[in-house]
Amino acid sequence: MYDFLQQIWPTLWPTLAAIGVILAFVPVLGLYMTFIERKLAAYVQDRLGPNRVGPFGLFQAIADAIKLFLKEQVIPDHVFKLLYFIAPTLSLMTAMFALVVMPFGPVPTDYTSGFRYIVAPGIDIGIMMMIAISSLSAYGIILGGWASNNKYSLYGAIRSCAQFISYEIPLGLSIIGIVVAAGSLNIEQIVAAQSGDFWNWNIFWQPLALIVFFTSALAETNRLPFDLPECEQELVGGFHTEYGGIKFVLFFLAEYTHVVTVSFLTALLFFGGWHFPGLSGPVDAGLGGMLLRTFVLVAKVSMVVAFIMLLRWALPRFRFDQLMGLAWKGLIPLGLVNLVCVAVVFTFDLPKHLLSFTAVFLFVASLISARNLQSTINMPRSAGRPKAGSILSEVTV
Amino acid sequence: MSTETKKVKTVKWGEEPKLGWKEAMYLPAIASGLMTALKHAFSGKTTTRQYPDVEPVIPANYRGVHRLNRDEAGRVKCVACYMCQTACPANCIEIIAAPAPKDDPHWKDRDKFPETFTIDELRCIYCGMCEEACPVDAIELTSVYDLTGMSRQEMIFDKEKLLSVFDETVNSGRDPIRTNRGALGPASEEASTAKQGPPPPGRGRHG
């Protein structure tokens, strides 16, 4: 036994350390992301935000956590007890499980030297596993909605089900182009393919893929422009209406873990990961290079997180038919067009930066959809309601 | 329904704005929305009031907690005429009048004075009709807005409490602008008593 442990120890300790880092950081990160989000929301709305607890309100997150942990555990009579308890844990479990294949820092090329920054290094189906796991996150939400035995919760859960199924497709389509270019599903190799100059970052030759990917990934996180499963105005609280205290925290933490995952994926797949001009070269450098690269990655990720939080206050929520229309009529065709362009470019060995002109298809798509929008908007009105601008008199009140 | 109540209203249907290709592309609209959000985020202007730390500036015509004014001799100005009690729409003022002690030189120019003067601050609707009604400007609504109490009994202010509100607010420099403090109305003659100096000890409490 001892010999066995001694034998696997060199590979065991970095894994354990990485798991520890993830387990320690994700809840703290989730808590402080709520704080940052509240501050950002306050600044956007010309307010001050939480500023009473500690300097600049920094301990507000801790106070919130203590309050939520000490709350009375209310279990409604009408819920399906088993699933009611399983749902939040499942939700958080799937959200954190996706982090297994996610490099949260520069991964050394030989996977052995120093700290690895990843729980499971060198998984050749990394990005595919990530997508597979992230589709599981609908499971926790649907179970929560079903177990709540509440019309609004179930309705929110069903919405999220439809949303997840619809947005899985463009999410996958947008990544395929990058996978083709890198020649691997391994996230570390996709990042390695973007090393060197700025112009090797995937955003500069696959802007269309970025837009499709980011939109559908945002929909997968249930964040504001796409938060129909929990929209307060229509569904009370959606799938987490019946949840409070620590069980609510788990759902909440799952959502923020998704935000972190999406931000990391965006930075890794499109913004060059831990690469920066002047910082290229193999990752087996010393401690300073490691820290610098970690900083670069974390900076990119936090910019994406800030962008996601800002989007929340810039965009209104989609109507449900608009949500479905965006996925099926907008993002999936665009993803397919992008895929065809990538295939053509790589088949005929054309310079890959030709692909940056795929952004033109966004204009084409918008022209087409503008025509469609005008006809579909006017259709239901002509059926039931009077024509716009017409004057109805003799209304008795 | 009679014909008089029938009303003819003209309804004009509005028109939804047509979506052009710019809106259909979403991105310009998103960018403009983000710019608005960023502009506000970095404007540095906040509309938050730091209430317990920074007290708000209350307009001078604010109607807050009542006070019973004193005249120059330190007596209560009120002449127990029951005008405010009659005018009060909430029935929150209760006055019991007593004849002024005629043998006391301090009170010799008054016929009546309020033996008790009680205002239920919880029942009051702060309409200001009592100070409108008062012929001697004895009752006023101050700009004190943060009135709290631990019990209902505590919120029933008697004469001493109302006079102490006067003592607290008289030097605040924020007198109500509705009434002229200092000049007694024609119903009260103060000319002689004003020169008699402070009230004798033991009487000041009763005003």
Overall pLDDT score of chain A: 81
Strand content of chain A: under 5%
Structural class of chain A: mainly alpha
Q: What proportion of the residues of chain B form beta strands (DSSP E)?
A: 5-15%
- Amount of helix of chain B: 10-25%
Number of strands of chain B: 6
> Remind me, CATH topology of the largest domain in chain B?
Alpha-Beta Plaits
* Individual helix count of chain B: 5
Fraction of residues in H or I helices of chain A: 55-70%
Sequence stretches where pLDDT stays below 50 over 5 or more residues of chain A: 377-382
- Top-tier CATH class of the largest domain in chain B: Alpha Beta
Along the chain, the helix and strand elements of chain A come as HHHHHHHHHHHHHE
Q: How many DSSP helices of chain A?
A: 13
Shape of chain B: elongated
Number of domains of chain A: 1
Q: What is the CATH architecture descriptor of the largest domain in chain B? A: 2-Layer Sandwich
Strand runs of chain A, count:
1
Rg over alpha carbons of chain A: 23 Å
Q: Largest sheet of chain B, order of strands side by side?
A: 3-4-6
First-to-last CA distance of chain B: 62 Å
